[in-house]
Write a structure and sequence with these properties.
Elements lengths: L7 H19 L14 H12 L6 H14 L6 H15 L1 H6 L2 H25 L7 H24 L8 H6 L6
Helix pairs in contact: 1-2, 1-3, 2-4, 2-7, 3-4, 4-6, 6-7
């Protein structure tokens, strides 16, 4: 049983933020070939959100958003969406440990999950003979995405008030049916 019932407003907020992250990736910030790699803010947003409010981010909502990102950003359709969903679901399974622990543990768990997803993506693209980004670009993507994660968490916490339930709020739900 979830701690809170499904919140359509929080789900709509997540959807609006996710669509805006996809739109932000489509904007032509990189007009010169030597510009740095932009972080994958959609993955950071989904990871931070699922740790704090998994009830408002069901798989049926998240999967189409990640697939839309693959299609809009001209990536192999479904590959990064699948790997991102597996990463998000792994973090969802550890949410109690992550939200009750210190922030560096959550940050390290996100970094480890992202690294595994990027490694699997590179392996799958190599096996299917699809052109893939160089190792340097992938490493830069990893570094900037992991570095942006605390900022995403801070924006969710302060600006949008997407926070983990307090221990007192969680204990009130124990034993309650309905």
């Amino acid at each position: 049983m979830t701690e809170y019932p499904f919140s359509p407003l929080r789900a709509a907020l997540f959807t609006a933020l996710a669509i805006s992250m996809i739109y932000l990736d489509l904007l032509p910030f990189q007009t010169v070939a030597e510009t740095p790699v932009m972080p994958d803010l959609l993955v950071a947003l989904a990871a931070a959100w699922v740790i704090r409010r998994p009830d408002s981010m069901p798989l049926a909502l998240t999967a189409p958003i990640f697939l839309l990102a693959d299609l809009a950003l001209d990536r192999p359709p479904g590959l990064w969406a699948l790997l991102s969903l597996l990463m998000i679901e792994a973090l969802r399974g550890q949410r109690d440990l992550l939200r009750n622990g210190p922030a560096p543990v959550e940050w390290a768990s996100f970094a480890a999950a992202l690294a595994v997803a990027l490694i699997f993506q590179a392996l799958i693209l190599r096996l299917t003979l699809v052109p893939r980004p160089s190792g340097e670009v992938t490493l830069q993507l990893f570094a900037v995405t992991v570095a942006s994660y605390p900022a995403v968490v801070l924006v969710l916490h302060v600006l949008f008030r997407v926070r983990s339930p307090k221990p007192a709020e969680r204990s009130r739900r124990l034993g309650r049916v309905g």
